Amino acid sequence: MAIINKASAVWQGGLKDGKGEISTKSGALSSQPYGFNTRFEGEPGTNPEELLGAAHAACFTMALSLILGEAGLTADRMETTATVSLEKKDDGFEITKVHLDLKGSVPGADQAKFEELAAKAKDGCPVSKLFKAEITMDATLD
């Protein structure tokens, strides 16, 4: 049985002068503003790439928690930053790369084992599987 989650976007106006709002079924986001200015000009608000990065960081870190557990390890703390690259191409914009930067404290793990398990999580996380873009990662054990 599939787990179904929903998010919605509302848009009013043209590309550059329009405004949008993003909401999630859970209420974690409720009418969060987004628009051309938040996506391309650094104005306050969110954008699709930022949201994809948050989803990827959360999914990957949770997947790594599972994989660590299967290896008999438990993290004291893990923090992942996902950097999503949006580039102008001939036929429009394209997400060309996602880079995961992981910092973790895992008692009983050494750097090599941490990198091995993190790579497994990077490849197996459902959001990673969604992206066709290059996905890179740095994993640093404290």
Shape: elongated
Strand proportion, as a percent range, falls in 35-45%
Spatial strand sequence of the major β-sheet: 1-2-3
The topology string of helices and strands comes to: EEEHHEEHHE
Number of strands: 6
Structural class: alpha+beta
Would you mind describing this structure in some detail?
It is a single chain. The model has no long low-confidence stretch (mean pLDDT 93). It is elongated and about 55 Å long. Helices cover 33% and strands 35% of the residues. The strands form two sheets. It has a three-stranded antiparallel beta sheet. Strand 1 and strand 2 form a beta hairpin. Helix 2 packs across helix 3. It is α+β, with helices and mostly antiparallel strands. The longest helix has 23 residues. The protein is built from four helices and six strands.
Write the layout of secondary structure elements.
Layout: E1 7-12, E2 19-24, E3 32-34, H1 36-40, H2 48-70, E4 77-89, E5 92-105, H3 111-124, H4 126-130, E6 134-141
